Amino acid sequence: MMRLYAVTDRTWLHGRELTEAVKEAIAGGITCLQLREKDLSPAAFLEEALELKRVTTAAGIPLIINDSVDICLKSGADGVHVGQGDMAAGEVRRLLGPDKILGVSARTVEQALAAQKAGADYLGVGAMFGTSTKLDAKKTSLETLHAICEAVSIPVVAIGGVREENLLSLSGSGADGAAVVSAIFAQKDICRAAKRLRDLSDQMVAGK
Fold first, then answer.
1. Is 134 annotated as a binding residue?
2. Number of other CB atoms surrounding residue 61 within 10 Å
3. What pLDDT, on a 0 to 100 scale, did the predictor assign at position 1?
4. Residue 37 annotated as binding site
5. Per the count of CB atoms within 10 A, which of 5, 74, 188, 199 is most buried?
6. Is the pLDDT of residue 133 over 90?
């Protein structure tokens, strides 16, 4: 599920429809999709989630909602991802129940272990590299990523500025995959970009 984890950001699409961009990314080989919408109204967010849930279900990949248990439950999405500043992971797990996927962002071994104990199914660790998506994101060292992967028994996905040029530098970290935003959705040929990233992510994990 974590091998190539795509996170949406419509600001990179330059007027293209998000649903069509997601279909191209799926054709290219993404294994999970997170719908992240910071600027949509709740009604528009739900409408987007319902549409993308149909697309991801047809493709057989999970749809994760960023930071909204409510939208997840109403749309039938497969899970929720929360950051350290969002609702506590244990509370999210309680609201979701046992069957939904819970992802949690972590930057330290302590945060990672706490998230796992609270019921997280996977961790997002980063920012590994400089990222224009979150300008205030603090960088995480490769050593910290490796330490987190060693400390937990749940999958870990590396996120933050990951792109073709640097993905293979994560080899040996123990990460189970890479999460990308602009490396897919800012590209003119989204399908081709996803195919290339999927290949690199497979190589990275093979060398973990």
1. yes
2. 22
3. 87
4. yes
5. 5
6. no
Q: Is 132 labelled a binding residue?
A: yes
pLDDT number for residue 169: 96
User: At 157, which helix (H) or strand (E)?
Assistant: strand 156-158
Closest CA to 134 of 161, 164, 111, 165: 161
The pLDDT mean for the chain works out to 95
Task: Say whether 93 counts as a known binding-site residue.
Answer: no
Q: Is 161 flagged in the annotation as binding?
A: yes
The verdict on whether residue 86 carries a ligand-binding annotation is: yes
Asked if residue 169 belongs to a known ligand binding site, the reply is: no
Q: Structural domain boundaries of the chain?
A: 4-206
What does the pLDDT look like over 75-119, one tens digit per residue? 999 999 999 999 999 999 999 999 999 999 999 999 999 999 999
> Is 138 one of the annotated binding-site residues?
no
Q: Is the dihedral of CA 48, 130, 150, 195 positive or negative?
A: positive
Residue 173 annotated as binding? no
Q: Is 188 annotated as a binding residue?
A: no
The confidence score (pLDDT) of residue 134 equals 55
pLDDT in tens, 48-68: 999 999 999 999 999 999 999
Please identify which residue in the block is written with the tokens 């989630």.
Answer: 49
How far apart are alpha carbons 152 and 181 in whole angstroms?
Answer: 25
- End-to-end CA distance of the chain, in Å? 16
